[in-house]
Design brief:
The protein is α/β, with parallel strands linked by helices. The strands form ten sheets. The protein has a seven-stranded mixed beta sheet with strand order 5-4-17-16-18-19-20, sandwiched between helices. The protein contains 20 helices and 32 strands. It has two domains: about 5-315 and about 395-455, Rossmann fold, CATH 3.40.50.12780; about 505-645, ANL, C-terminal domain (GMP Synthetase, Chain A, domain 3). It starts with 6 loop residues before the first helix and ends with a helix. The longest helix is centred in the first third of the chain and has 17 residues, at about 90-105. It binds coenzyme A (COA) and adenosine monophosphate (AMP). Adenosine monophosphate (AMP) binds near residues 397, 400, 423 and 502. Coenzyme A binds near residues 342, 348, 511 and 578. This is AMP-binding protein. Belongs to the ATP-dependent AMP-binding enzyme family. Keywords: Metal-binding. It comes from Rhizobium helianthi.
Length: about 650
């Protein structure tokens, strides 16, 4: 299995002539007009791929597959444990749904370049809506359902969306999440108001529609177009035109709008389905994620359809809906060949089904590989999954910004030997290096900043939405000629990458990317808070959870527990339940350097029970004793040692 991996030959082939490599891959897709240049270094922030080419991503996902004879094959498999609804859509049927939505959008004046915000739970219509936007050359921006109204408002303003597509509700275990009031609040808050909102009414909760504000019943409007049989041809767009904007946590409360283009994105994703994930056309691929995240964009929607696969859209949780066997039921029922999820999901399954009794209840023999990403995969969980499933369990590393795996073990090219703790080696397209803070290359096995040599390959972000300068200053300026991943790690003597930690204030909580900086901004809004710090502490299930330290204003005499619970509510209401912000500690002072920088890194090490050194620049060492004491009182430090290590 190992000796014949084609990885080295393919990687070297790419390195010898990147443009020839991607030019050949581009020919596997449809172009209305071939690119004039494969790569133009003079365009965009760091150059642009497939310049002058005209294409359409929806055409490549649907029309091209149907023309190749896949019309009656499975394309999207909807399986909701939350509602009990299940439905298989063929490529032909997906095209019908997508054309009808595209027609509705067109009637609302949506055209090439217009933005459409999609704020929806895991329903098939969310996927159809994304493809409908792509068909028209409109730019979608999907907002995760677990975000609160304020986050949605920020995205409405930044994208200046013409239309919003939403649903009446989402379904979480034990509660129905009413989306419409959140949407209405967000629109009231936003400076830039959409012209219309298409609302999908779900049986679990009907939302009162504000017709006077432009609300439209999604199903009725789409049905009317289906009855008419409206055909909506694909609008040719430039390869360099944006396909979507996906907002992701930055270091402040202002999220970054990652812009993905049409040409590079489709070429890179198609390559990855075949060569990285090792799935063949006609097979079923399942990314157990959410369309609100990049994994959902790349590997629930676009990747599988571009490669002629069937993709599962799953609404539910890995455990408790109804039990830890749900994933295996899906694998069995839909003959899933390759699966992708976050390590957190597996930690939850292992917690509830350590002996694999649920796994044994289902026939998972069709499964060839399990891919894990989104956060650091702990070796124990990987080994447990390998033992239980008896298939390769593959850790791979990437980010919202890159859109597809930077480092991994490519099943499609033949696996390389596994080193636990490492997502293996960089994929073709990525020249990965580890440098010190001054940008000097570091020798093997030395911890430093992981950077990617420019240009980034096709499929990676081209910029932030309307914010080239922010993209330059946050990602490209610190290490000239390189993209800064903001992950720290090392490369060993065999070229294996080890990703250890973020170098900024991003944390990964249950596979969700969150900014502690954004949480600090919200905590600081509380009238009793003088200053605060939020850090990520190790959590056995979620990987990391946020933990807030509050210094109250001197005259405050209110009950500290009450203030803490108000702050928890504030974060839930401003950012959303997904922030999982539940721990607040009131402290007298925050530990700082003499120049006033809060020592968050040291606090985190203390909380996790890791070895730490007294920073030479600390202003008052006694404060760290106070912090340690309060952390110990809350059960941190010692208790967290094992899991943080
Ligand atoms: N809409 C509304 N609310 C949402 C939501 C959504 N789409 N997703 C999560 N939430 C809410 C949850 O209901 C929960 O609310 P609560 O505080 O009222 O209980 C909160 O956000 C935190 O959710 P979550 O982080 O999912 O934690 P959990 O305790 O409900 O579940 C796991 C724990 C491990 C089962 C769950 O986090 C999980 O499935 N993780 C895997 C995530 C994943 O696959 N990520 C994709 C990256 S590849
Ligand atoms: P996101 O943009 O939500 O995909 O989060 C990206 C970040 O998650 C990365 O920058 C890493 O910090 C972390 N991450 C993702 N996958 C892995 C992995 N396999 N190992 C370690 N960290 C990971």
């Amino acid at each position: 299995m190992h000796a014949d991996s084609r990885y080295h030959a393919v990687y070297e082939g790419w390195k010898a002539d990147p443009e020839a490599f991607w030019a050949e891959e581009a020919q596997k897709l449809h172009w209305f007009k071939q690119p004039d240049r494969i790569f133009d270094p003079a365009l965009g922030v760091y150059g642009r791929w497939f310049v002058g080419g005209e294409t359409n991503t929806c055409f490549n996902c649907l029309d091209r597959q149907i023309a190749a004879g896949r019309g009656t094959e499975k394309a999207l498999i909807y399986d909701s444990v939350m509602s009990g609804q299940k439905r298989v859509y063929t490529y032909d049927e997906v095209l019908t749904e997508v054309q009808a939505i595209a027609a509705v959008l067109q009637n609302l004046g949506v055209g090439k370049g217009d933005r459409v915000v999609i704020y929806m739970p895991m329903v098939a219509e969310a996927t159809f809506s994304m493809l409908a936007c792509a068909r028209l050359g409109a730019i979608h921006s999907v907002v995760f359902g677990g975000f609160a109204a304020h986050e949605l408002a920020t995205r409405l303003d930044d994208s200046q969306a013409k239309v919003v597509i939403s649903a009446s509700c989402g379904l979480e275990p034990g509660r129905v999440v009413a989306y419409k009031p959140l949407l209405d609040q967000a629109i009231d808050m936003a400076r830039f108001k959409p012209e219309a909102c298409l609302i999908l009414q779900r049986d679990q909760l009907h939302a009162p529609l504000r017709y006077e504000h432009g609300d439209i019943d999604f199903a009725q409007a789409v049905e009317a177009e289906k009855v008419k049989g409206t055909q909506v041809p694909c609008v040719p767009v430039l390869a360099t035109d944006p396909l979507y904007v996906l907002y992701t946590s930055g270091t402040t409360g202002q999220p970054k709008g990652v812009v993905r283009d049409n040409g590079g994105h489709m070429v890179a994703l198609r390559w990855s389905m075949e060569n990285f994930f090792g799935v063949k056309p006609g097979e079923t691929f399942w990314a157990a994620s959410d369309i609100g995240w990049v994994v959902g964009h790349s590997y629930i929607v676009y990747g599988p359809l571009l490669a002629g696969n069937a993709s599962v859209i799953f609404e539910g949780k890995p455990v408790g809906t109804p039990d830890a066997g749900t994933y295996w039921r899906i694998v069995q029922d839909h003959d899933v060949k390759v699966m992708f999820t976050a390590p957190t999901a597996f930690r939850a399954i292992r917690r509830d089904d350590g002996e694999g009794e649920h796994i044994a209840r289902y026939d998972t023999s069709g499964l060839r590989a399990l891919f894990l990403a989104g956060e650091r995969a702990d070796t124990e969980t990987i080994k447990w999954a390998e033992r239980m499933l008896k298939v390769p369990v593959i850790d791979h590393w990437w980010q919202t910004e890159t859109g597809w795996p930077v480092a991994g073990n490519p099943v499609g090219l033949g696996l390389m030997p596994v080193k636990y703790g490492s997502p293996t080696r960089p994929m073709p397209g990525y020249d990965l290096q580890v440098v010190d803070d001054d940008g000097h290359a570091l020798p093997p096995n030395t911890l430093g900043n992981i950077v990617l040599k420019l240009p980034l390959p096709p499929g990676c972000l081209v910029s932030f939405w309307n914010a080239d300068e922010r993209f330059r200053s946050t990602c490209l300026e610190e290490f000239p000629g390189y993209y800064k991943t903001a992950d720290a790690g090392l490369v060993d003597e065999d070229g294996y990458v080890f990703v250890m930690a973020r170098t900024d204030d991003i944390i990964n909580c249950a596979g969700h990317r969150l900014s502690t900086g954004a949480m600090e901004e919200v905590c600081a809004m509380h009238p009793d808070v003088a200053e605060c710090a939020v850090i990520g502490v190790a959590d056995p299930l979620k990987g990391q959870i946020p933990c807030g330290f509050m210094v109250l204003k001197s005259k405050v005499e209110r009950d500290e527990a009450l203030i803490a619970s108000e702050i928890v509510d504030l974060v839930r209401n401003e950012i959303g339940p997904v922030a999982a912000f539940r721990t607040v500690m009131v402290v007298k002072r925050l530990p700082k350097t003499r120049s006033g920088k809060v020592l968050r890194g040291t606090m985190q090490k203390i909380a996790d029970g890791l070895p730490w050194k007294m920073p030479a620049t600390i202003d008052d060492p006694v404060i760290l004793d106070e912090i340690t004491e309060i952390l110990q009182k809350h059960g941190y430090c010692e208790q967290h040692k094992a899991m943080a290590g």
